[in-house]
Amino acid sequence: MKLYAWAVVAGGLGLLAGGGGVDGVLGQATPPPLVELKQNYPNPFNPATTIPFTLSGDLFANGHRPKVSLRIYNVLAQLVATPILQGTGEELNDLELTCSSPSTGCTFNAYWDGNVGKTDQEAASGVYIYQLIVDGRRFTKKMIIMK
């Protein structure tokens, strides 16, 4: 019984604490996100798509090079492909990125040719999930292939 009573009290405190604003100071602007995964374009697409993402300059502080992966899954959570980083052609699989202007951050573009893995087999029409992993933190969006 005490455990149940504590859960009610803790839940109530959570609601009260959350009511004053996320950053705790009313009127204070929320800082920009460290990672912003954007919607792929075109969406729906056929046969290829670009996936933009932005990394804040704070991620590059003190010479840090964030480790970045981007993976595409089908709705059964099966890995379909790993896109490449435009401009380098490198697969976005634990790739350590650098930023030319760390004070403002950098926007990167990933490219997926719509093929399954490293084959010439085209992915089927449907919904796909793409997940960006930056230093272990995950960001996810969905996209559609329409043939």
Overview in brief:
The chain has 147 residues and is mostly beta strands. The protein is built from 1 helix and 9 strands.
Structural features:
mainly beta, Immunoglobulin-like, five-stranded antiparallel beta sheet, four-stranded antiparallel beta sheet, 1 helix, 9 strands, 12% helix, globular
Ends apart, CA distance between termini: 58 Å
Provide the β-strand percentage band: 25-35%
> Over all CA atoms, what is the radius of gyration?
20 Å
Largest sheet: 5 strands, antiparallel
Number of strands: 9
Task: Write the SSE topology.
Layout: H1 2-18, E1 35-37, E2 49-55, E3 67-74, E4 79-81, E5 84-85, E6 95-96, E7 106-112, E8 126-134, E9 137-145
Antiparallel strand pairs: 1-2, 2-7, 3-4, 3-6, 3-8, 5-7, 8-9
What does this structure look like?
- The chain has one domain (32-145): Immunoglobulin-like (Sandwich), CATH 2.60.40.
- It has one helix and nine strands.
- The chain has one helix spanning 2-18; strands spanning 35-37, 49-55, 67-74, 79-81, 84-85, 95-96, 106-112, 126-134, 137-145.
- The strands form two sheets. Strands 3, 4, 6, 8 and 9 form a five-stranded antiparallel beta sheet that branches.
- Strand 3 (67-74) and strand 4 (79-81) form a beta hairpin.
- It is globular and about 45 Å long.
- The termini are far apart.
- 16% of the residues are buried.
